[in-house]
Write a structure and sequence with these properties.
CATH topology of the largest domain in chain A: Phosphoribosyl-aminoimidazole Synthetase, Chain A, domain 2
InterPro entries (chains A, B): PurM-like_C_sf, PurM-like_N, PurM-like_N_sf, ThiL-like
Structural class of chain A: alpha+beta
Number of domains of chain A: 2
GO molecular function, one term (chains A, B): thiamine-phosphate kinase activity
Distance between the termini of chain A: 22 Å
Enzyme class (chains A, B): transferase
Order of helices and strands of chain A: HHEEEHEHEEEEHHHEHEHHEHEEEH
CATH superfamily of the largest domain in chain A: PurM-like C-terminal domain
Radius of gyration of chain A: 21 Å
Number of helices of chain A: 12
Number of strands of chain A: 14
Strand content of chain A: 15-25%
Largest sheet of chain A: 7 strands, mixed
Shape of chain A: globular
Organism (chains A, B): Microcosmobacter mediterraneus
Pathway (chains A, B): Cofactor biosynthesis; thiamine diphosphate biosynthesis; thiamine diphosphate from thiamine phosphate: step 1/1
Oligomer: homodimer
Helix content of chain A: 25-40%
């Protein structure tokens, strides 16, 4: 019946994920006194009796976000929690509670869900968050996980996406591109397995990047570290899509430009060697790969001395006036416009 | 790969929805100081700087929870919000914020999602809650909506499921069974439509029960009314499954028994006439039907004078000592054990 009522149709893929959210929610206004920040950052910010509460939610869907042929359910449970906590940390907040809802088809026996919840349990323990609710229901196909995470922060500690200023340094934690290359390795092994199910793959030479894909960690340690170092970033976002997409979010919301230096992007040797093996350009992977769950932040130059000796942080560029645009400065010192070619949920599907 | 590792399998349907949640979450402990109440009530209760925050989440899945052949998307958006707010009100709290995540297949054009969000918008406006976040992603099949709702309450106002005491009155708001019978009418019309797509159904004689199914309301008015009347229920739950299931939740958590009087259960005349037309026993529908989103509460007998003149409330039974059991007292004054035969998500599916 749906299909017949309106001859004018717009395909969802035309808008992209972020365009779609913006479009659908443009008329929604914030009315509650307790709503400090609604849609448009890593998490919403709420104020209850002057305690700032951070709220974020994510959906993970089988065969869109994960493939159970190589993703163990324990890891999946762990990762489902981590990707949400990462959004809380990206607000410079401490994660405190989660809810987990799952929809499953009867294809899954109880033991499969026990594995999933063991992963969720391990993540709750590791990150010291409480599971406080959820919903369990049947699905007609496959497995779906919806996690909501809450966190708290003092109001003057919360870091939004919109505070970057010209001359701020663009700083990345850890290294990137690993999760994406890990996925490539797993996808290749899956194809091999289809041809020869008795083949026992040796993934030891890919251990780091496969773990980055299957069991990523959220950078809670960085939030603690920033507190110790007395650094409050001017803006921050977690790297769930590629850094290119994340930098553009910061630039758009902060109304600034940026220069990102190709030769500064931190890559693990395993990412470089696997990119060579797959004959893919490692910079393309680094800026567009996604799922690394590192933190990308901008800090005032005054704070540079506090972070420069710390191996957790790499300065990868700096913020400019908006009119200067957003550029990747290549190794050949050519400035090319930065584009978000990151993972786009709505283009990926059939 | 999943299927081969463990020869010992337990079908999910063996546990039922509530058994499954209990089983999967039994080892999870509450560690955060701010977690007052975790899993096991209509919503979690959190305490941030002495403001009690209520948190609840629900998943709605196409062809499990709704059928788009008769559920207009606007109504679906409205209902998706309402079912979550109902859980907040069931804690005697005020709903303040929601997040909405959707997964959609490309079968849906943008205009369909605009309709869905128009319903969400209308509900936000009607109940004065803010949409503050969400996630939008693709699904391989159909439409899925995950809503999380937050509310606030003073800590001494929150009503749990576990406070019912012997001799308390069992009180229901509004009337029940309508949503279920509305569904029966819609399902019948769908079958007629399949045979004769040109048939224009006249649903005017079923207007009330169809609206109960397609556009239910959450009883925010009751929360305001209880405050005016200065009544704090000893326990409360919303009627999303049948009242039989809800009463048993209260009895289990409060460690009490109950007597429910068949002749006191409030039914709309349209429910009675439609039950006659479908040749179904109206009491069976009333106690097992579900989706009415009324509030079921227990109140101290001392509070009875405050509610007795109010048409919103019906006393349908009373609480007993646990050892006396849980019974339905029929019109023939026979006591039969109360069983939860309500909607069970995990038995319904193929």
């Amino acid at each position: 019946m749906l299909e017949d009522k309106n001859p004018k149709k717009t395909a969802l893929s035309k808008l992209g994920e972020f365009g779609l959210i913006d479009h659908l929610t443009q008329n929604f206004k914030i009315n509650q006194e307790s709503s400090i920040k609604g849609i448009g950052d890593d998490a919403a910010v709420l104020n209850f009796n002057n305690a700032q509460t951070v709220l974020t939610t994510d959906l993970l869907i089988e065969n869109v976000h994960f493939d159970l042929s190589y993703m163990p359910l324990k890891h999946l449970g762990y990762k489902a929690v981590v990707v949400n906590l990462s959004d809380v940390y990206a607000m410079n907040a401490k994660a405190t509670q989660i809810t987990v809802s799952i929809a499953v088809s009867n294809r899954f026996p109880l033991e499969a869900l026990e594995d999933l919840y063991e992963g969720i349990y391990t993540a709750c323990k590791h990150y010291n968050v409480d599971l406080v609710g959820g919903d369990t229901t049947s699905s007609t196909t496959g497995l779906l996980i919806s996690v909501t995470a809450l966190g708290i922060a003092e109001s003057d500690k919360i870091v939004y996406r919109n505070g970057a200023k010209p001359n701020d340094l663009l700083v990345l934690t850890g290294d990137i591109g690993g999760a994406f290359m890990g996925l490539q390795v797993l996808e290749r092994e899956k194809e091999v397995f289809k041809v020869n199910p008795n083949n026992q793959p040796d993934l030891s030479m890919y251990a780091y990047i496969v773990e980055r894909q299957l069991k990523p960690e959220a950078r809670k340690d960085i939030i603690d570290l920033l507190e110790q170092l007395q650094v409050k970033p001017t803006s921050m976002i977690d790297v769930s899509d590629g850094i290119s997409s994340e930098i553009l979010h910061i630039c758009k919301q902060s109304k600034v430009g940026c220069e990102l230096y190709e030769n500064k992007i931190p890559l693990d040797p395993q990412v470089i060697s696997t990119c060579e093996e797959f004959d893919i350009d490692s910079t393309t992977i680094a800026i567009n790969g996604g799922e690394d769950y590192e933190l990308l932040m901008t800090i005032s130059q005054d704070d540079y001395p506090k972070i420069k000796a710390n191996p957790n942080f790499t300065v990868i560029g700096y913020i400019t006036e908006e009119a200067k645009g957003k550029h990747l400065i290549t190794r050949a010192e050519t400035a090319i416009p930065l584009k978000a070619q990151g993972w786009n949920a709505l283009n990926d599907q059939e």
